[in-house]
C-alpha cells in the first residue's frame, strides 16, 4: 500500500507533518506530543492544510484486491 498526498506542494513543511500523522489516524494530542507542539496548533495547521485543498490517495496493487491474475477465478 502506498499513500500519496496530492497538492502537497501547497502545504508548509509543518502542515505536511500534521497531515500525514492525522491521516494515519492520530489524534490532535498524539500529533502534538510527537511534534512537540500544542494540540490547538495541530488543529490550526490541519484546518489550514485542509483549506488549501490537498487530497489523500491510497494506491493498492491489483493483486492485493485479487482482481488481476493469480486467483482461482482465472482458472474457471
Automatic annotation (TrEMBL):
Residues 25-52 form the HTH luxR-type domain. InterPro entries: RNA_pol_sigma70_r4_t2, Sig_transdc_resp-reg_C-effctor, Tscrpt_reg_LuxR_C, WH-like_DNA-bd_sf. It comes from the Bacteria. One of its GO terms (molecular function) is sigma factor activity. One of its GO terms (biological process) is DNA-templated transcription initiation. This is Sigma-70, region 4. It comes from Thermosyntropha lipolytica DSM 11003.
